[in-house]
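LAB NOTEBOOK - FOLDING QUEUE
OPERATOR: T.R.
BATCH SIZE: 2
PURPOSE: Compare the predicted structure-token outputs for two unrelated chains run back to back under identical settings.
PRIORITY: normal
REVIEWER: second-year student, initials M.K.

ITEM 1
FIELD SEQUENCE / FIELD STRUCTURE:
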Amino acid sequence: MGFRVGIDTGGTFTDAISVDDNGVTQTAKASTTPGNLIVGATNVLDGLAKRYNMSRKDFLSQVTTIVHGTTTGTNIIHTRVGPKMGMLCTKGHRDVIQIRQVPKEEMYDWKHDFPEVLVPRYLRKEVVERIDKDGNVWKALDEDSVREATEFLKKLKVESIVIAFLYSFVDPSHEKRAREIVKEVYPEVEVTISSDILPAIGEYERTSTAIINAFIAPAVNKYTKQVQSFLEEEGFNGQFLYIQNNGGVETAEVALEKPATLAMSGPAAGPSAAISVGKFHNEKNLLSIDMGGTSFDIAIVNEGAFLTKTQSLIEDHRFSLPVIDVSAVGAGGGSLAWFDVTGTLRVGPKSAGADPGPACYGKSDEPAVTDADVVLGYINPDYFLGGEMKIDRSLSEKAIKEKVADRLGISVEEGAASMYRIINSVMADSVSYTFTRRGYDPRDYVVCSGGAAGGVHALPISRELGIKKVLIPKYAPIYCAYGMLGVDLKHDFTRHYTTPGNHLDIEHVKDLYREMEEEGLAVLAKEGIAEEDRVIVRTMNVQYFGQFRGIEVEWPSGPITEESIAEGVKNFHREHRARYGHSDEDYPYLFSSWGLSAIGKIPPVVVTTLEKSGADASEAVKAKRKAYFDKGFVETTIYDGDKLNAGNVMQGPCIIEERMTNIVVPPGFIVQVDDYGNYVAIDE
């Protein structure tokens, strides 16, 4: 018997799921341990082993694959506890990362303060060299200036050096030679060159991304080695994979070569979970939402594929590697209630996190969303995490009374209801913004709701958005961990070649793809992927003349011909029309960059089905209790999720209690259990 395991380290909880060769699944959840993330991962592995009545060592000896999503990189940038870094740059371009670009979200706020750059000015040294946009050498690399700059940085004991020269994406020879010199002068220092990390146009984006890679590398390397050492000691002999920013997975060995691929690893598997569940119901257009303890993550799935982007911000630092387009807002079970300067009640984005947590945990007197859910009767304090974690309703009531209700002159229950409505509106507004900025209508989509807190809030949010159908996976509380299990290996490559559409040199395009394909297939071979399981996907970045940025679209992966490239251009016009409401096939366009994804197919996870029965769910009724709906408390039927069968139907108002989450069903909703244990809610 072999097991496949997914482990997701979130801001509040660490989640895990395992599935065996027969499709039998077990889950575990534990508090995230920010000081030492391995402890949280160890705790969920213990939880899984316990479900199988095994020791941790016996369990791990039978695990064939572990897929892990980590927030290590993001945390390092957030806390700024990375290495002391230096930089070598082309003379005259020392302040590129200081000048940067104004983030669009803050471009009209003149009071907005940028975070301190990760490489201070006195550690950024200029080097004499210059390559032009066509790859011609204007000034040869002055090797003495490289040595002098390196000696200076060595004296100041920098731990990592980034080399970012102008137009190195066209010709990286100067960067590579500079790296050789740096290693000669300062052998023990870590060196990152920008052309290795992002060989694409955009001096600031390339430099910033390379700096992020170098900044998180020591922490990612240390964490990876600690995890691998721990697993080996515990008898694990399988494959250890990381979920990447782009939604694919990679081996730990490959991740260590380019840690930036893990910079936004955290929420990347959520959309994959939505796609998996959507397939059961032939739903290809999905709104994936994931409400955990700290954040509310939003992603769009179009025609069965998640959207990606190559322009992101991590703590206001530009990051330009491909990432799944996930929008996050500070709204979760730990989001705290507070009053602004006008006396208006707000909820979030500040969170209680895992420690001290909501007031009901007994470590804080600040009311959080979970406290409101408890007071409103949505969460049973005696069955939180299946009864494994005890919480105190009286502490929730006390916190809401003192911090919210008394100030507003209302009852505790009304205060809790106000918090509930506010946080739901915050999340619904965030979804609306995410869709409208892309030109999409959320009413054309089906919600797939994940996260331990998602089921308590998903249906009111969907109703506010006008969405009639909601899918809630059986494994919603471990949404990202569940999504990791069936994800393929994926590696992205890019080459810069900007040219008007009518001056394209097809032979040059063939050369670019020959290089990228060789690199991609070599990585997949290194990861042990058989030839028949290797897939190549091509993309092109196209834009109309006068536009600042283009749109990345796929194009056929067969022989490179005028016809195949024309097919890609048609996809560009089609996508431009979908996003912006117009396109012009007669207007001049240009190509800016060319991409390739090398994909290693992973065998699908075996899925088991539930026992089927009729619509009657009365045998699953476990209790009745008062819960708040509309404007007051009503007697509400409570169902035991573990006793429900495929085909069972429940009418709102009701609450379905799972071991790690609850599903709150308001009046007007009907919920049915599908063949796989997922919940399908319809707003009548």
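ITEM 2
FIELD SEQUENCE / FIELD STRUCTURE:
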Amino acid sequence: MNALLEIRGLGFAWPGQAPLFAHLNASLTPGLALLTGDEQRGKTTLLRLLAAEIRPQAGTMQLTGQDIGDQLAGLRPDMTRPDLDTVVVADWLRTQVPEGPARDRLDEHIDGLSLGEHLHKGFYMLSAGGRRKVGLAAAMALQPPLTLLDQPFAALDLASIRYISDWLREQSLATDRLVLLADYEAPANLAIAQRIDLG
């Protein structure tokens, strides 16, 4: 199977700090992949680079053969943004997920993650786990070519962890998209063949 995501010679350092990585190379096929590394090794930074939120100092990143940049990037749901506090959950989901099959999938994920009772609330009323579940529901419904998940199980209840684990197992069989999951180690209940290890 051909690579969906190609990273070649990638280098990045925050101003005044040592490089997080230099000459990073990876080639990932569709399905599920794991990004691991200890604290401060650059997991979240790499996800931000792949989401085109920041730019590398060296190297290239390609998704389906095209450079990752302003027009093409991975989807990284960041639900910690303070500008979301006054936004109503249902309104935000409507702006993120278009009508059609994606909206149908969203309804399934709202049920699967027990979000129905929270749709009328502002984000400020949700726990960290609740906010995370809203972002995950949107990302899971959209099914973009590249979904970037940073510690997706953090602050979640057991039922939601099971639901997301089942969804991730399904994604491991995908032939047209990649889910890159960043965490300190592989989740115990998931078999993930592809890996980027930042040390």
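REVIEWER COMMENT (ITEM 2): The mean pLDDT is 95.
FOLLOW-UP: none requested
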